[in-house]
Amino acid sequence: MKNMAQQYITHKLKNITTEELIYFSQMYDISLTYKEAEKIVKELKKNKENPFEKQGRKRMLRKLAAITSNETARSLDMLLHRLAKQYGVEEWLQ
């Protein structure tokens, strides 16, 4: 079951829209411009890293920091953790 849920979440990350990302950033009071969201969505679509493995998540966030900023990448990591907590799967990100 855990594996299936992780696959679903990974699929969702690869298919998130700019509008959805903006919505979640506003929901959690994370500063994100529309242009940054567009860049992030484009990068997530081609991302091959596993966000549930610590090293894979770090590599993914480094790539996102390179196209936005370190602060934005940290904010996205926070957003990922908040969403995981909301759905009761925060321990999957350890």
Characterization of the model:
This protein is mostly helical and 94 residues long. The chain has one domain (2-93). Helix content is 72%, strand content 0%. It is built from 5 helices and no strands. It has helices spanning 2-15, 18-27, 34-46, 54-67, 70-86. The longest helix has 17 residues, at 70-86. This is DUF2624 domain-containing protein. It comes from Halobacillus andaensis. It holds the Pfam family DUF2624.
Q: Can you lay out the helices and strands and say which pair or pack?
A:
Elements: H1 2-15, H2 18-27, H3 34-46, H4 54-67, H5 70-86
Helix pairs in contact: 2-3, 3-4, 4-5
Q: Can you summarize this structure?
A:
This protein is an all-alpha fold and 94 residues long. It is built from five helices and no strands.
Strand content of the residues, in percent? Answer: under 5%
Number of strands: 0
**N- and C-termini, Cα separation:** 18 Å
What would you report as the Rg, rounded to the nearest angstrom?
Answer: 12 Å
Shape estimate? globular
Q: Structural class given helices, strands, pairing?
A: mainly alpha
Level of helix content?
over 70%
- Note the run of SSEs as H and E: HHHHH
Number of domains: 1
List the uncertain runs.
none
Query: Main beta sheet: strand number and arrangement?
Result: none
What is the number of helices?
A: 5
> pLDDT average, as an integer?
88
Protein name: DUF2624 domain-containing protein
Organism: Halobacillus andaensis
Pfam families: DUF2624
InterPro entries: DUF2624
Name the descriptors.
DUF2624 domain-containing protein; 94 residues; DUF2624; mainly alpha; 5 helices; single chain
